[in-house]
Specification:
The chain has eleven helices and two strands. By secondary structure, it is an all-alpha fold. It has a single domain, classed as ABC transporter involved in vitamin B12 uptake, BtuC (Orthogonal Bundle). The radius of gyration is 19 Å and the shape is globular.
């Protein structure tokens, strides 16, 4: 019975990680930014959804919408306040901009985290679930919201795939990830591509944060572990590889779930981080990255 419990719970949490990591990978693949405020954006969206649905009494649907909008707003704030000023600065050498952006997004994430703690305390917040009830899956009593979470995550990932592969704007985004200079020669403004990518990232991160808040609950203390998990996933799968991130999300998700059930929830992130160290030592480009 414990095996099936780990299998079902691990699938749901891995789907959440996959959704969040897809946005993280998308940002890096197109604009070359490792956004270390990722966990803060997810938590910010979840807390906004909790406040709207529970504190303001707007209900789960309106609360979820507020959370998604918050995710997009925080995403654009991250871009315009921390990333773009550094990318366009003439006072910072090109070789040093990457480390400046890493530092800026990390500090921005800390600012969001402290703002959440100040306004809403450090106590865990659980977002009102959209789907109530319990179903029996493989003999295990499973919350309906858990099944709903996995479905929404993969539905969102499928929509992103359609956007990238079946629309003109999506193909421009894909081209920008491969050859930014070539895109500009075709008359497409990179700034508009970046806005599209950061908007998509905000939607993905916001949705993942809200679903996580419904599934497990979040607090300001969740910011660090969420960012660490996303970073571990994209590095493990291979920077810029969406398919690698999806597979790595399930590796990390199941490792964390098994550790939580078999050892202790307090140590759930340790095996994934140890695996990351081993992979970086043996295969620095990640499992599916290119040299």
């Amino acid at each position: 019975m414990l095996f099936w419990q780990i299998l079902i719970d691990g699938f749901a949490i891995s789907a959440l990680y996959a959704l969040g990591a897809t946005g993280f990978t998308l940002i890096f693949g197109v604009s070359g930014v490792l956004n270390l405020s990722h966990g803060a954006i997810m938590v910010g969206a979840a807390v906004a959804a909790w406040a709207a649905s529970s504190e303001l009494g707007l209900g789960p649907y309106a609360g979820a919408l507020v959370g998604v909008v918050t995710g997009v707003v925080l995403s654009f704030a991250t871009y315009f306040l921390t990333v773009r000023p550094i990318q366009t600065s003439r006072k910072i050498a090109e070789a040093e901009k990457e480390i400046f952006i890493l530092t800026a997004t990390l500090l921005w994430g800390i600012i969001i985290q402290e703002a959440i703690a100040y306004l809403f305390t450090n106590n865990a917040k659980t977002v009102l679930p959209i789907v109530d009830g319990v179903v029996i899956v493989l003999g295990v009593r499973t919350p309906s919201n858990e099944i709903f979470t996995a479905f929404v995550c993969w539905f969102a990932i499928g929509l992103l795939w359609l956007l990238v592969n079946r629309t003109k704007r999506g193909k421009a985004v894909m081209a920008a990830s491969m050859n930014p200079r070539g895109v500009t020669l075709l008359g497409i403004e990179l700034s508009s591509i970046y806005l599209t990518v950061w908007a998509a990232y905000g939607l993905l991160a916001g949705t993942a944060g809200i679903l996580l808040g419904m599934f497990l609950g979040v607090s300001s203390y969740s910011v660090g572990p969420l960012t660490a998990s996303a970073f571990s996933i994209v590095v493990l799968g291979g920077l810029g590889s969406v398919s690698g991130s999806l597979i790595a999300a399930y590796v990390v998700g199941y490792l964390e779930t098994a550790t939580a059930y078999l050892v202790s929830p307090a140590y759930r992130t340790i095996p994934a981080l140890l695996l990351l160290v081993v992979v970086m030592y043996l295969r620095p480009q990640g499992l599916f990255g290119r040299r």
